[in-house]
Amino acid sequence: MPFALLLLVLAAAWRVLALHTPALSNFSPLMALAFCGGVYFSNIWQRLAPFAALTLTDIYIDHYYAVEYGYQWTLGGAVLRTVCFAAALGFGLIVAQRRSWLNLLSGALGGALLFYLVTNTASWLGDAGYARTAAGWWQAMTIGHPQFAPTLSFFRNTLVSDLLFTGLFALAMEAAARRKGAPSLLGGRTQDA
Predict the structure, then answer these.
(1) What is the DSSP letter of 19?
(2) What tens digit of pLDDT does each residue of 19-60 get?
(3) Range of the domain at 165
(4) Which of 18, 57, 60, 92 is deepest in the core (most CB within 10 A)?
């Protein structure tokens, strides 16, 4: 449990520190931890811990955006992010039923794509800066607002970080299983004793 707590603290700290480096916006391990929590953990508290880290860092990030850009997130936006994380946890629970590297990859890709589509469509629907047309939706999905980085760069960072951190977490879990002499957690060959 201390390792899991340390992992969450580091993930939350990473999300806050990455905020101050625009090139790292949305490059965060939290979605991967929510997804992997569903794949690897049976304890409900371990599965829900990434949601606490998301909520606490959202409070800080909302304050930062309000001070730096005069832009505040809404409660609806926070709920949508939480729903996306819950979907990633659900994807993880599905992958846990039939673990494989391919399913792990598919779940991580699905979570990143869902997050991108849901949050950018919500921005298009709720932000007066976007026209309520197909062109406005396309703007929300690709370039976003001129004062921010293009939304495709946020998606790129989300996708890369979800894949990277999911892979790192899976490798750590595989290494821990190997040290114990347990079989692969992802359906590979079992280790001979």
Answers:
(1) H
(2) 778 788 788 888 998 999 899 888 888 888 888 888 888 888
(3) 2-180
(4) 92
